[in-house]
């Protein structure tokens, strides 16, 4: 996607704002399996943590602790926007927030955090988007960028992890933005832009698989730091008479915008896409390494993240369920592990700007909510 004109996909994944997009209400795709009746409501959500700084992905660790990636708030003193131009500035306010039992704190601080002013005067923050604990107290983090390596370099010292999968100490494990700049894999779909905004990652043996929402691809990161294109997500087809989404995308099509990735009980990877923020166009892909990915579920809206339930079903988190003028609330949907059938989960309309989801071993669902700004929260929907 172009550096000059800010991509809506990059902007959304960086700040989860819909802006001036026009989302068209459409029926579920013809191939969509009918959704069953609403899943019984869970108990009222519990606010586990509050005052989080642009919280993004949430991960339940093997020891039962919950780890939240905080994108931060950019620099301590915000930079000055230049009217009509994209302005970027760097701070080190990102962090990793850990909850274990009654104890909670920021276990890592000082991570790079980018504040971006867009040409329309609005702003967004990107930085740490997903994290996991490694051995010996180490952490791995995937960082957003909303740009290319040249944009990152212009930010100055300390910006190196943006657009990469790195350790929290700053070692780059794989440069996703660099991969996009070198290869632009989704050009084969007719998307005439070069743009990177990594979203999520999962381990595959000694490798990692990373979704790049801006580049519309799945990238494999090898132990030596090299990267290869695993899969390019095809554009989705818009309903007839839909307004254009992007000028640099083929007419009648919408970029995939892959987001969450999780490994299922069957060993396959399941990956969500947003398909232009159109109601009912979102898809979940099933991918067995070495084979061709297939669409596993359709009929979703704005799926920003996926998690695995203890019984093997998928839990999808939708950033919103409405139109651009009335986008709220967010939603949780259970996806049957065998059929792909969708079952809404009653959240009591509690979700407002949710960006990350994880499920604990007992079925508790954790969601980062109010995820724009420094008053974010971590909610827990207890299992019945």
UniProtKB/TrEMBL annotation:
<dbReference type="InterPro" id="IPR048031">
    <property type="entry name" value="ScyD/ScyE-like"/>
</dbReference>
<keyword id="KW-0732">Signal</keyword>
<dbReference type="InterPro" id="IPR011042">
    <property type="entry name" value="6-blade_b-propeller_TolB-like"/>
</dbReference>
<protein>
    <submittedName>
        <fullName>ScyD/ScyE family protein</fullName>
    </submittedName>
</protein>
<feature type="signal peptide">
    <location>
        <begin position="1"/>
        <end position="30"/>
    </location>
</feature>
């Amino acid at each position: 996607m172009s550096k000059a004109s800010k991509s809506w996909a990059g902007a959304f994944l960086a700040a989860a704002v819909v802006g001036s997009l026009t989302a068209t209400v459409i029926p579920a795709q013809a191939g969509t399996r009918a959704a069953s009746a609403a899943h019984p409501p869970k108990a009222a959500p519990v606010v586990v943590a509050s005052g989080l700084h642009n919280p993004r992905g949430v991960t339940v660790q093997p020891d039962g602790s919950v780890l939240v990636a905080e994108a931060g708030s950019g620099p301590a003193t915000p930079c000055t926007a230049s009217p009509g131009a994209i302005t970027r500035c760097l701070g080190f306010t990102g962090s990793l927030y850990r909850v274990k039992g009654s104890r909670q704190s920021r276990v890592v601080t000082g991570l790079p955090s980018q504040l971006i002013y867009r040409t329309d005067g609005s702003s967004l923050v990107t930085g740490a988007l997903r994290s996991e604990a490694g051995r010996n107290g180490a952490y791995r983090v995937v960082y957003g960028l909303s740009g290319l390596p040249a944009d990152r370099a212009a930010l100055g010292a300390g910006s190196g992890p943006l657009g990469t999968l790195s350790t929290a100490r700053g070692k780059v494990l794989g440069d996703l933005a660099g991969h996009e700049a070198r290869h632009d894999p989704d050009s084969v779909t007719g998307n005439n832009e070069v743009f990177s905004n990594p979203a999520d990652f999962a381990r595959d043996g000694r490798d990692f698989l990373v979704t790049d929402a801006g580049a519309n691809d799945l990238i494999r990161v090898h132990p030596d730091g090299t990267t290869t294109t695993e899969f390019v997500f095809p554009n989705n087809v818009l309903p007839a008479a839909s307004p254009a989404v992007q000028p640099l995308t083929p007419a009648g099509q919408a970029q995939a915008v892959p987001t969450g990735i999780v490994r299922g009980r069957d060993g396959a990877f399941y990956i969500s896409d947003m398909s232009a923020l159109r109601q009912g166009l979102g898809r979940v892909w099933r991918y067995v390494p070495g084979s061709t990915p297939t669409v596993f579920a359709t009929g979703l809206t704005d799926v920003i993240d996926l998690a695995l339930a203890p019984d093997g079903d998928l839990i999808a988190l939708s950033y919103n369920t409405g139109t651009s003028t009335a986008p709220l609330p967010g939603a949780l949907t259970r996806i049957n592990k065998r059929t792909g059938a969708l079952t809404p989960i009653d959240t009591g309309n509690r979700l407002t700007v949710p960006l990350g989801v994880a499920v604990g071993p007992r079925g508790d669902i954790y969601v980062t909510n109010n995820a724009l700004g420094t008053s974010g929260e971590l909610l827990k929907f207890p299992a019945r």
